[in-house]
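Dear Dr. H.,

I hope your travels went smoothly. While you were away I took the liberty of generating a structure for the chain from your last submission, since the lab meeting agenda had it listed for discussion. I wanted you to have the full record in hand beforehand rather than looking at slides cold. The sequence, exactly as received, is reproduced here:
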Amino acid sequence: MHSVSSAQALADEVVREVRGLWSLRRPVVVGIPGGRSIQPVLPTLLHALEREVGRSQAPGGELVRFVLVDERRTASRDELNETALRRHFLDSPFPLCVPEHKEAAAFTAALGAAPGARTPAIDVGVYGVGADGHIASLFPGHEALESTQLGYIDIVASPKPPPERVTVSPALVRGARLNVLLFVGPQKRPAWERFLDEQATVRQCPARLASPVGDDQRLVVFADL
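The corresponding predicted structure, in token form, is as follows:
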């Protein structure tokens, strides 16, 4: 685990990973959350990526693709994660790919839309950690943590409203080359302490899904408590 204390340092870590994945000759997929935690760091991240790879973007081609790590099913567009994030991409060369249909199958299919892509795959996963230790829509004690699906999964009984959501599966979190956890705000200190507790299980603290399981994987933590 590598800790960073600034948005720029976090962005540098993501750029480093993206640069190393260019050899795959497909878009590098970066998953991002909704919520407040990502808002202070996303502009810096987009600017750093644009400075590094934006000039190489060819018409009709992609070097980096952004996706959501979860989304709410709601009739109000104001409550969608997509709505909260879309403004950051208005002047960005990188697409934010969000399916019209808020279903797991559609989100999973979007990951493998590019020729030569592994299906499914998020290369870099960025997650805001909730006060209870949840990431995306994977909540402590929820049955979704037992899912063996490789892509996104549908949630029909979320403990946090709205009850219906789409989220990355545990396998999709574990499969990333780089995971980034954002602990932002004093209310996240209990989650931070539980995450650091080596005795805590994934069911108790889903953020622990982001811990590396292979030698080629990394975890970066941004804590502003």
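Two observations you may find useful: The chain has six helices and ten strands. The beta strands are 2-4, 28-32, 64-68, 70-72, 96-97, 124-128, 152-155, 165-168, 178-184, 218-224.

With kind regards,
E. W.
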